[in-house]
Predict the 3D structure of the following.
Amino acid sequence: MGKYDEMVIAGFDRACEKYPDRSAVVYLGESFSYRKVKELINRFATALFDLGVRDNDKVMLYIPNCPQFLIAYFGAQQIGAVPVPVSPIYTPHEIKYLINDSEAETILCMDTNFRYVKEVFPETCLKRTIVTSYLDLVPLYKRVIGALFDKVPSGMIEKGDHIYSFRHLLRKYPPDPPRIDIDPAGHLSYILYTGGTTGFPKGCIATHRGMVSFVNEIRNVGEGHIREGQEVFVMVNPLFHQMAQGVVLGMVLTKGNTAVLMPMPVVDAILKAIEKYRGTLFLGAPTLYRMILENDRLDFFDLSSLRFCWSGGDVLPLEVYKRWKEKFHVPIYQVFGATEVGFAAMSPLDREPVEGSIGLPLSSRETRIVDPETLDPVPSGVPGELLVTSEFISKEYWKKPEETAVSYVDIDGKTWYRMKDYVMMDEEGRLFYVDRSADIIKCKGYRVSCSEIEAVLQDHPAVVAACVVGVPDSKVGERIKGIVVLKEDVRGVSGSDLLKWCNERLASYKVPQYLEFRDMLPKSKVGKLLRREVREEERQRIGKMLKV
């Protein structure tokens, strides 16, 4: 067996043996030791198995950052099941598709989004629902205070044969799950969803071997800089996102460090957590760094404990980088990648980040920068589309051969993923971001698929065509603009009507901020939407406005 041929939980298990009494997780003021988290994982794994969950069954995690996420993620994997983490703010329209596409028979949800699961349950392949709450794992007195003063979001839960309480399952079952032997090179460790070019989200898959290699790459970047058993990572980025999973495993939970889980990205709460727990590690999207810098109470908090900060999910504006470094004397290092390949590049920690660079390619990731039309390599210093391959990454999407054919290409006997990001490489091998595909919008750190939003708009009975583009915005990266063509005989349909339609079917961060009505949209000779032309129109219009 190779050095990566083990289950994802193996690295966490080693940390449990070495640091059993060290705090693995801090959540709502409660500390959970490595020993305790491991016990809860085993209890949940035992419960899942008794409920009928078996090898390769899919378990959807429809919850925010909380200990329950880690317990369920590892607990499912422990018995050979496959976790499917998704955003807890997805609408019924989105969640129904994801359940059926992933073939999930079990879902773990919050009491706050239980009603969405209840609504779609009859139309899905679900067999059971496990419900938890923000306060399930905190002491009784905190649950009582939270209820009395209405401090914590909560929802109504119904009883039923297929409905189970997360907290009751942990009480009922012993920490004694069955031992499951898997093939790490072939067994899926998760399915993560990202925007699709056909209007439907696509499932990105990784084997246990693939995820272990990814986690170990991150550990290697931190070698000699990230201490074992001493770091405190204030965890704001959502755990349903691969960037957060990679960093929390590679820098924290396999090294005996502590993760302070923040269920919601509230700036004052984040600053208070860094100060209170003497946070040393921090990860955020550029939007979050800007929000922190612009917080009018920033000077009231002591953030001097910070040692390493990373940014990912979007391009870090140079002025944000400079302001952060000047304010806290700590640079912001880059992580750059995609759900399909993990991190393609990271800033090395043994030197100051080069301004504008997104880092060096990871050793296990082979990269090429090519002409997007011919796929021929471009010279050093010339922008091109980034291709990534590795023996450890999957070369296909879950049940999406058409999407696979669009996004993966075979060159010289290897299958490469087309990042749809345009970069250039200097003579030192550093990557510099140039632009992104017109198909993808980066808004508030999220990669948003234009096609998915267009499909929702075009489902409206009054709409005959739609085009969605990103409008440059210094605060959030890009704002989402929808351009719509109505059917000729339609009267009385407003932008408010279409935004309400979108709000009912899309997570809030995917809903357009602007809508514009047009008589027609630019198309190619074969009828393909020329989204890049519309995008360039918007950029030129913004440029002219800034010059005025």
About this structure: The chain has a mean pLDDT of 92.
